[in-house]
Amino acid sequence: MFSKTKLFLTIGLSLLLLLIAFSGYRINALSRQQVQIMEDYSTVNSIAFGILSINKWEEKITTIVEKQIQQFSFTPEQRVELQKEVEKMLHAMIDKAMSNLTKKQTSIKGKIRKAAVNVFVDEDQLHDQVPGFAKTIVDQVNKPSTKKTLKNLAEDKLDEVKETTFDSSMVAQRKVTNAIFSKYGARNSTGFKKKTDKLFADIRYESYAYTLVVFACILLLLALWKYFIDHQELQKSLFIFSLLAAGVVLIVGVSSVMIEVEARLEKIDFHLMGEHLIFEDQVLFFQSKSIMDVVVILLKNAKIDSIVVGLLILTFSVFFPLGKLISSGLYLLRESSRKNKFVHFFAFKSGKWSMADVMVVAIMLTYIGMNSMLTSQLAVLNIKEDNITSIATNNTSLQPGYMVFVLFVVFALILSEILNRITKKIAEISS
Hints:
This protein is α+β, with helices and mostly antiparallel strands. It has 14 helices and five strands. Strands 1, 2, 3, 4 and 5 form a five-stranded antiparallel beta sheet that branches. Strand 1 (259-272) and strand 2 form a beta hairpin. It is rod-shaped, with a radius of gyration of 39 Å. The relative contact order is 0.12. The chain crosses the membrane at residues 207-225, 237-259, 307-333, 354-380, 400-419. Keywords: Membrane, Transmembrane, Transmembrane helix.
């Protein structure tokens, strides 16, 4: 009876372990894929390529100015104001011309010219004709052919400004963005955003789905323990499979992304010449790391203090938990190992030396602290004024890797209690 139960249990646990391993692999792969997409997204939408780019400003301002030139036209009120200004200019010109012509002359030619002006030119009559001249000028300016000429002149001047404000670094920027667009099969930033938004949504859905699968499998293992805890013949098999499952969960937890920190200007809107000059999704900062990523970065650093910290994290958050799992299995399976000091230490006393639970708390505190800090700092960038409006957002979030790591910590504690209970029963039977 028990042999059949043990066989079916072994087959079931093997399938369960395979499901945990596959789900863990997918969680890790999806987290890496998400990081890569987010890094590409941050590059394309970096403030260096956006609001801090001279060429980006030039493109947006040029678009607004070109639109203003194409829509150039006088309203009735503007025609009246323009005519008044032209009249002022004509009156001033007449006054200046008459002043120059009627001033005291010393040469014979100048005296003859002055006499002719006094005889043939009536200054008051000229001033009376100014409104008519001004109206004719305004009518000429408002003709389609004249407006077209003015638009061409304005566009020529605008092209000159564009050439003088060109930033050579933009060529390199465009190469980078075009390469990323090609990678995702997008033609422009709008298409790229649509592609990445869909990818983000799909990845998040899959990641959390596989995370739930891992949680469900661990809960099923615990349910099996509750049912078979008193069956000594099945305890060893169930415990070994539980240790293997815990090992898989640990590896997934430390290698998958745990926290994602992102700050961005979601929208900044400048009001210029009656138009909206808008920058969207300007990424200020992005960082996403797993425990192993942090360890690798610290170990690659040439500074001795960074290397020491990296080794400490690797030892107490990876090696110690793995040592505890292996020693627990040896302690249960091999009676001779129970007398080994190292096995006994790792099986029962290494818990207080392991930093796995400390890492859980540290990451949570980092998340809370970073979230609060970024939220408070970005709040300053949220501006609502007549000429500018901006919205800054903090997208810091804990990732499935963190949840899996928390699951390992809790599961490892429960397995320690189970091992204590099993060994006590074995000791009672032996005595």
